[in-house]
Design a protein that fits this description.
Length: about 450
């Protein structure tokens, strides 16, 4: 049995914070410690308590004065778009056709897919992200590379082979049968292996024929425990085109509902321009709207009304994500900085406790996985991020005037990035230090 004790300031949320002064919503230990056994947290509390329980001679890692939190969770990103990020385009459809689709064609090559997978996990860990929900490309090879690398690193990952059978280059198209068969093959090969979870992944309604949507429905019925991920209502031109393709549907959301794809495990990327009826439909189904702020700003897609969706009589479940490569940063800290600014433009407040809740427990709850990830509660996986709010000269200077925990979190969110990540643990194993030692990875 491997036992490690780590010491530092602990922060873990028990539920969504209602205000800046809602101290009951989280656990904070100014001199805290975690006892980790075989990749899981066995005890969390004050250093004195944990030290007294821990066996003599246990390995002890001192992270004081840094903040130890559950590792960040990124609820939506595209693993084959690492070389698409920072592409200059006017809008979503131009960006997809000019840069994204040609790039994703390369993932038919397993060598290329494996190389990018290595970089993908390096970047996640460098940024303190320990779980992510990803789209692979249409090719099974991309899903194989994605899950093989997750298995190697012991990470809890959700992902799927994208299904798309129209409106893209030939090299990116499957058929309803192929999409069905290959998704089944990915499930058989990877689901439940290590900490891998396969998601049923129709890219979006524009790139799936009604025949493929039916195949997706068949998969969803056969594998009701799997997550389903797709995109919804990101951009006005996209919405118009989608409705031309599915004239019988009441609205964009109704297309997915008609094929039985709207449920508690459905993750809908963007969902910016929803009607009241659509928001009701999401709420009633328990489906999750996944907010991708850096992407929405970068592509000029729109301002996601996060707070008003959460506040409705029929509230919509919300999660947060980077959406690499439409998104412009791998960092969940940068992501929440932009999420904050979007709410500011909408006349809403997003307080820093809420932001850090969303990146951790909130996203875990949106995944229905809070019993395994997203908190520091005993029994959960020891997936952690260690943060330093004085990681740059400008931050260090600002930290001199910081007096409270929410102020520190807000500084981390506003000025922090991968430099604020001191260490990232996956199942109790320190991962970032080893990465920092790699000078060049080809
Ligand atoms: Zn996306």
């Amino acid at each position: 049995m491997t036992q490690i004790l780590i010491r530092g300031r602990l922060l873990s949320f028990k539920r969504a914070p209602l205000s800046l002064t809602d101290t009951d919503s989280y656990l904070y230990e100014s001199d805290g410690a975690l006892l980790m056994e075989d990749g899981r947290i066995s005890v969390a509390g004050s250093y004195g308590t944990v030290r007294a329980i821990a066996p003599e001679g246990i390995e002890e890692i001192d992270h004081r004065p840094h903040l130890i939190m559950p590792g960040f969770i990124d609820m939506h990103l595209h693993f084959p778009q690492m070389q698409v990020i920072a592409s200059y385009a006017a809008n979503l459809l131009e960006w997809l056709n000019t840069y994204t689709f040609p790039e994703e064609c390369r993932f038919v090559e397993s060598e290329h897919a494996a190389r990018i997978a290595t970089h993908f996990y390096d970047e996640l860990l460098r940024h303190g992200t320990t779980t992510a929900v990803a789209y692979c490309s249409v090719h099974k090879t991309s899903a194989d590379a994605f899950f093989a690398e997750a298995l190697k690193r012991g990470m809890c990952m959700v992902g799927g082979k994208v299904m798309m059978d129209r409106n893209a280059p030939q090299g990116l198209l499957d058929t309803p049968e192929m999409g069905y068969d290959e998704t089944r093959a990915v499930i058989a090969d990877w689901h439940g292996k290590g900490r891998n979870h396969v998601a049923i992944t129709p890219r979006f309604a524009i790139t799936s024929t009604p025949g493929q949507m039916q195949a997706t429905q068949a998969l969803a019925e056969e594998f009701p425990d799997l997550h389903i991920q797709t995109h919804l209502s990101e951009n006005h031109d996209e919405i118009r085109y989608t409705m031309d393709l599915y004239p019988e549907a009441t609205d964009y959301t109704d297309i997915y509902a008609r094929y039985g794809l709207l449920g508690k495990k459905t993750l809908l990327g963007h969902a910016i321009h929803l009607s009241e009826r659509e928001a009701d439909a999401l709420s009633e189904a328990g489906a999750v709207a996944v907010h991708c702020p850096t992407s929405n700003l970068f592509l000029g897609s729109g301002l996601f009304p996060m707070k008003s969706l959460m506040r409705r009589d029929k509230p919509v479940r919300v999660a947060v994500a980077t959406d690499i490569g439409g998104g412009s940063s791998y960092s969940m800290l940068r992501t929440m900085d932009e999420a904050y600014k979007i709410q500011q433009l909408l006349g809403e407040r997003l307080n820093p406790l809420e932001s850090f809740y969303l990146m951790t427990r909130g996203n875990a709850e949106a995944l229905s996985m809070a019993d395994d990830i997203g908190t520091l509660e005993p029994g959960t996986a020891a997936d952690l991020v260690v943060l330093d709010a004085a990681s740059t000269p400008a931050m260090r200077l600002r930290m001199e005037t910081v007096k409270t925990l929410p102020e520190e979190l807000f500084l981390l969110q506003t000025m922090g990035d991968d430099r604020a990540v001191v260490e990232t643990y996956v199942a109790g194993k320190a991962m970032k230090g080893a990465l920092d030692a790699i000078q060049v990875r080809t």
